[in-house]
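Hey, resending since the last one bounced:
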Amino acid sequence: MKKWLIVHEYGKLDFERIYGKLQDDIRDLDVFLKAVIQKFNL
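The structure tokens again:
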């Protein structure tokens, strides 16, 4: 049971780290798209 808990906690931390990076990437993409839209006045 304890081993499963450790794996679960590690998996959760890993997921949060990956999800956080994904959010940063999405934010960068959003900023990039807004800049392109402004440049071409779409």
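Helices lie at 2-40.

Sorry for the duplicate.
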